[in-house]
Description:
By secondary structure, the chain is an alpha+beta fold. It has helices at 28-34, 43-57, 60-63, 77-86, 164-189, 208-213, 220-225, 236-240, 262-265; strands spanning 3-15, 68-74, 94-97, 108-114, 118-126, 137-144, 149-156, 195-200, 216-217, 231-233, 246-248, 251-253, 256-261, 271-280, 316-322. Helix 2 (43-57) crosses helix 4.
Amino acid sequence: MTTEYHFAFWNVENLFDIENAPPERRSDKVARAIKKDIKGWTQARLDRKIAQLASIIRQMNGGRGPDLLGVCEVENRFVLDLLVGALAPLARPYLVIHQDTADQRGIDVAFIYDGSLFQVEAVFDHVVMRRTATRDIVQVNFMTASNRRFVVVGNHWPSRSGGLLESAAYRAIAGETLAYFHQRIWEVHGKDTPVLAMGDFNDEPFDRSLVNYALALRSAAKVLNGTNPYFHNLMWPSLGEGIGSFYFDNLPNLLDQFLADKNMVKKSGKIRALPETVRVLAFPEMLRKGDYPAPRPFGGMGKPVDETGFSDHFPIEMVVSEA
């Protein structure tokens, strides 16, 4: 019997705690870093942001909600718990994986997952070495109900602020870090361990950080036949259709991606990615006018707020099958 799981990832755009969050929820260092931008971020505004995000997440997977959702640009466990609370109408036993990292703005990568489907075996934070701290790469070893291990790796690579070329080296470092720990997963758990990386990579599938450093390739054949710990980048068909998950100057950028290793690509794999199910998810209410159907941001953190918006990124989704 085959079981199918719905996975999604979403950069939820500045999901921050309230302006005067207590010190147990926001460090002095982060408070100083965001002091100017966080002004006016009230509980009412946070609640509205949560409601907007939850309205989209509840529609995923045919209205059943995702089985596993990776998120980034979340400040702390408090806002994640609020988001899970807003998903209560789905009546699913959602659990949260979150660990604070040293990012200079205090934003993290996290997972929300259905605890009746998956058990967590271990969680690891992998530091991306940089003078100004950035988000850790978060590795979660899950076990399915059939006692099969699969590894999910959440990413939010350094941004392009300061210039695409000027910042490229930082994303190359992140890509090399991902490839290193992909190899370590195989060394520790065996080369037949399925690994799925997801996230906002702040680069496109053809950029060097993904191809040359993360070893995320367009060719499934090369992934299957190669001896290196390659990933198959599942977003190339979307890229070919001119679809973006983020828009800059009203032009599409496919920054949010799923990367599946050879164990999730091969036909004989017990836990397999289904490439034909991969898509950028854009419900009608999420679209704004323009040459391309760009996402409607909620804003905040120094940017104008539109309380009818959602995020400056679209979520991505896919189906994973277990034989």
